[in-house]
User: Which sequence fits this backbone?
């Protein structure tokens, strides 16, 4: 093949930006594609040129093969890189690129097809002698057969979509009674995400670690592994923190798993970069094949940091027909790297995704810390796609060094505009079990309440900081005071994002701001205040808080802690009214099911409706026992955040 001259990236967000950086370093011109929702997105601004390929829904744009191929032809691109997600593991897309005379930067379509179907892939791996989890991957998809096979495997079992990954269409089922609902739910999600509702059943390995092996293969028969990554810290079967190497895998086991991964790749004629995922059972020191991701992984930077290799660079070289320039014995592993995924989501509310304008986004410049970001300040995080903001990756000579560098980098990262998981990531990195390398795939779920407990930004000075941010005073002349609509002091009624109510009085005296609450007082001295920064002194300590005001909402970020307050002192009574009688949409999204109608009796916890947003399905449940008074939406509706969905009759 000839050298790639112009590369179209069939993706968006941080991965599109990351691919462009390597392409540019090779002197390759880049083309971005974007949807209507991404008209001003960062990846489009970074590329040499950008082409709109359709509407905001992924099916209209990033999943539209004809539109992507058309954009490649129109731009004169000679190659297409699919990134990850979207079309990256679609064999028909790889074939369409080849048929159009384009170089597909990925494995052959046949390898994608073989590994893309979990059932077929598992059968091939069993034939190739790769260890697999006991389970069922047959053609008979009736509920009766799946129930019967689950009982054969023994509970708990994992119900998984046959056609996809990324945690979609995946459910852990503890007992027979819960299986029927899990099958129905997984089928629906799998159909929505992948257009295929087939399922497989596998034994759920408790206490397991998620360990995956990165492989590189060329079209000349050479295949090597680049060591393992441990991705055990997960929520909803999606990875949160990844690291290389794994803290529980030794050199001998690494080579054993690496050899199995190479065998798996060669069994399907693989070429390019790929990842073979395993479940590792520390108690038995055994591992089982899960699936192969026939693409670049989100967490590939940790492998790059411990090997010194650029995986995208090698993807492009293999696509151009080059042979790998090294053998297995030439690969060195040095140090430790850990990656954290920064998301617009609220961990305390079931990792509910959020959207909105990025009002402030600042990353630290630190040695051995890498930032792969998909947005900048001023950009919009929409409801249409995965809500990842960035990946923050740290390298150290030891695991502890990498862990502490990453935690420090996250504490110095400032993000305002919506709920996010940064504080949760900091808590995970400081958690004793993770620090010891003992956290398994179920650790987050078992310890969610403790890990999502939020600290107040500014600690004891938090409410005084809120008062300083909410006053109209600029603090420009701290010696003579100022004029303000809240000049001498004012009452303050705040509600934080967790629903905690704080009623206080703020007193202003020159540079001093005092908050009286629950019989105690906390005061700060404001040293300076700008549009989004307050420097202050509290008990002989100087601190800095970043903040953003939007109507009667206030966000504060200080000392690695974030909080959003609603200033109910200013909220109109008509907007603050509420109660347990109206169930509203927790985010903008698509109403995928409505399970009740007017007059239906419901119990507390009854699922009333489901809403799909950012590739995830969320259940709306009855807040109390009662009777449905009205239903305001119907299946298929696209609803706004806080839109009324179901009303219960008022309690008598």
Assistant:
């Amino acid at each position: 093949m000839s050298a790639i001259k112009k590369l179209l990236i069939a993706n968006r967000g941080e991965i599109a930006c990351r691919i462009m950086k390597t392409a540019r370093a090779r002197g390759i011109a880049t083309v971005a594609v974007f949807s209507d929702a991404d008209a001003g997105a960062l990846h489009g601004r970074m590329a040499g040129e950008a082409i709109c390929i359709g509407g905001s829904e992924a099916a209209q744009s990033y999943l539209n093969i004809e539109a992507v191929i058309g954009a490649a032809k129109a731009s004169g691109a000679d190659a297409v890189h699919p990134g990850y997600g979207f079309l990256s593991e679609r064999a028909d897309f790889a074939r369409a690129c080849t048929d159009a005379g384009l170089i597909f930067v990925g494995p052959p379509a046949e390898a994608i097809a073989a590994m893309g179907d979990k059932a077929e892939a598992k059968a091939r791996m069993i034939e190739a002698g790769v260890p697999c989890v006991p389970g069922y991957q047959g053609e008979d998809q009736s509920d009766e057969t799946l129930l019967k096979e689950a009982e054969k495997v023994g509970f708990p079992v994992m119900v998984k979509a046959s056609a996809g990954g990324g945690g979609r269409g995946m459910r852990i089922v503890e007992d027979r009674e819960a299986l029927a609902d899990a099958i129905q739910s997984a089928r629906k999600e799998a159909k929505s995400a992948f257009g295929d509702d087939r399922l497989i059943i596998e034994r759920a390995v408790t206490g397991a670690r998620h360990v995956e092996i990165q492989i590189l293969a060329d079209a000349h028969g050479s295949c090597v592994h680049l060591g393992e990554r441990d991705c055990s810290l997960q929520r909803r079967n999606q990875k949160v923190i990844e690291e290389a190497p794994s803290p529980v895998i030794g050199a001998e086991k690494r080579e054993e798993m690496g050899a199995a991964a190479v065998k798996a790749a060669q069994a399907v004629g693989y070429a390019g970069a790929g990842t073979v995922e395993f479940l590792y059972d520390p108690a038995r020191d055994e591992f089982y094949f899960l699936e192969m991701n026939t693409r670049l992984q989100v967490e590939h930077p940790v492998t790059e940091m411990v090997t010194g290799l650029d995986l995208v660079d090698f993807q492009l070289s293999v696509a151009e027909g080059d042979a790998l320039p090294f053998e297995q014995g030439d690969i060195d592993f040095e140090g430790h790297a850990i990656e954290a995924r920064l998301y617009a989501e609220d961990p305390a509310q079931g990792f509910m995704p959020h959207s909105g304008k990025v009002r402030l986004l600042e990353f630290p410049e630190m040695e051995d810390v890498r930032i792969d970001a998909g947005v900048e300040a001023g950009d919009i995080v929409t409801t249409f796609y995965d809500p990842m903001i960035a990946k923050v990756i740290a390298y150290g000579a030891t695991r502890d060094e990498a862990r502490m560098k990453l935690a420090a980098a996250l504490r110095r990262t400032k993000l305002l505009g919506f709920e996010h998981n940064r504080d949760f990531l900091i808590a995970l990195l400081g958690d004793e079990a993770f620090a010891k390398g003992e956290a398994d795939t179920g650790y987050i779920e078992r310890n969610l309440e403790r890990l999502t407990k939020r600290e107040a930004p500014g600690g004891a000075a938090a409410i005084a900081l809120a008062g300083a941010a909410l006053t109209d005073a600029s603090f420009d002349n701290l010696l003579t005071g100022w004029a303000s609509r809240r000049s001498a002091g004012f009452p303050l009624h705040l509600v934080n994002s967790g629903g905690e109510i704080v009623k206080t009085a703020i007193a202003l005296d020159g540079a001093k701001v005092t908050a009286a609450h629950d019989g105690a007082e906390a005061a700060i001295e404001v040293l300076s205040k700008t549009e989004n920064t307050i420097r202050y002194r509290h008990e002989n300590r100087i601190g800095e808080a970043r903040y953003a005001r939007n109507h009667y909402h206030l966000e504060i970020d200080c000392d690695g802690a974030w909080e959003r307050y609603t200033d109910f002192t200013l909220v109109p009574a008509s907007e603050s009214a509420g109660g347990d009688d109206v169930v509203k949409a927790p985010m903008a999204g698509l109403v995928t099911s409505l399970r009740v109608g007017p007059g239906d009796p419901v119990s507390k916890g009854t699922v009333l409706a489901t809403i799909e947003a950012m590739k995830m399905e969320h259940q709306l449940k009855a807040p109390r026992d009662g009777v449905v008074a009205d239903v305001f939406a119907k299946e298929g509706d696209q609803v706004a955040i806080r839109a009324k969905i179901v009303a219960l009759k008022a309690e008598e």
User: Anything to note?
Assistant: Residues 224 and 328 are 5 Å apart (CA to CA). The first strand starts at residue 6 and ends at 9. The chain has 18 helices and 39 strands. Residues 477-487, 573-579 have pLDDT under 50 and may be disordered.
